[in-house]
Amino acid sequence: MDVSIIIVNYRSWKPLHNCLESLLSIDKTKINFEVIIVDNFSNDGEFDSFQNKFKDFIFIRNNTNSGFANGCNLGAKEAKGEYFLFLNPDTVISPNTLTTLYTTYKNHSEIGILSCLQVDKKNRFFYQTNIFPSLARLFAISRFFYRKIINKRTNTIFNSKKELFYPDWVTGAVIFISKDWFKKVNGWNEDYWLYFEDVDICRKIAQKNGKMAVTRDTTILHEHGGSSRNDFETEHISKTEVIISKHVYINNNFKPITKALAHGFLTLFILLEKTFLSLLSLFLFFNLKLKTNRYILKNLCSYYFYAIKKQTWLSKRSPNYQKVDL
């Protein structure tokens, strides 16, 4: 088996249907591949229907919603391919994408993880010139000014004519990696329930002298956020987990002094911001986006309470949370 395509799904059946239909268009005479769909306990009655419709694909029913990293690792355990393509359910790939990723990866020994160009439904490109997080780039306002300063450089990198460009990290929506590299970094880090697990795995590969690359030779359609924010409850949980995963990433990757400062600044800034926006939502009650902040604030207060009590920055949804010594 050349490639195992692994997709983690949670109640994203409509975009997943489009994704799987696009995979059916790949010519199996050119590349031997399998498709593995791990459903993270959607528990909404759709699993059996999809399993019956796409009989050539492998469906795995996770017994809990243990997060993206856990679902990816579960799929990888069943995979027979020498290479893995981790793919979001809200993506649609062209018939040549898999072959392009496969041949490009094999022809460039320096690559640890390969991705490709991504566009949304309005044909807008995602500027994949990502840099590893640092204390100076942890907050939205600091990232804004940083991007302004290096805007010309990033645009030059993204718009150059070279086949490949090399960001620090690539998004988990499209990650092509060899089984050997996957084993070297012990797979996806299940400290993360959702978000930043892609940054983490790229950092581990970089520490072992592998490179992250993006090829311009193929492009996928990516309905960004379509698989994680499909209703009000999912949205405020997802946005809370973004913040929690920042803390997990800081704890796993920052040096001791920087780590303490980053945790402190992030906690203070986020609580002040969400408190202000929550109060504002009481007056502008018709604005659903502002209302979301009240739920996020409630979630974060609970998270920080248990972070102090349990002495861990892990999300309660993380599979590794249960392993914390009490």
What this model shows, in words?
With 326 residues, this protein is α/β, with parallel strands linked by helices. 46% of the residues lie in helices and 16% in strands. It has helices at residues 13-23, 47-53, 68-78, 97-107, 140-159, 179-184, 197-207, 232-253, 256-283, 288-310; strands at residues 3-9, 33-39, 58-61, 83-87, 91-92, 111-119, 164-165, 174-178, 211-222. Strands 1, 2, 3, 4, 5, 6, 7, 8 and 9 form a nine-stranded mixed β-sheet that branches. Helix 1 (13-23) links the parallel strand 1 (3-9) and strand 2 (33-39). Helix 8 runs antiparallel to helix 9, helix 8 (232-253) packs across helix 10 (288-310) and helix 9 (256-283) packs antiparallel against helix 10 (288-310). The termini are far apart.
Radius of gyration: 20 Å
- H-E string: EHEHEHEEHEHEEHHEHHH
Low-confidence stretches: none
| Biggest sheet details | 9 strands, mixed
Describe the global form: globular
Q: Terminal Cα separation, in Å?
A: 44 Å
Structural class: alpha/beta
Proportion of helical residues: 40-55%
The tally of beta strands, per DSSP, is 9
Give the gist of this structure.
The chain is of the alpha/beta class. The protein is built from ten helices and nine strands. Strands 1, 2, 3, 4, 5, 6, 7, 8 and 9 form a nine-stranded mixed beta sheet that branches.
Key features?
alpha/beta, 46% helix, 10 helices, 9 strands
Topology overview:
Blueprint: E1 3-9, H1 13-23, E2 33-39, H2 47-53, E3 58-61, H3 68-78, E4 83-87, E5 91-92, H4 97-107, E6 111-119, H5 140-159, E7 164-165, E8 174-178, H6 179-184, H7 197-207, E9 211-222, H8 232-253, H9 256-283, H10 288-310
Parallel strand pairs: 1-2, 1-4, 2-3, 6-9
Antiparallel strand pairs: 4-8, 5-9, 6-8, 7-9
Helix pairs in contact: 8-9, 8-10, 9-10
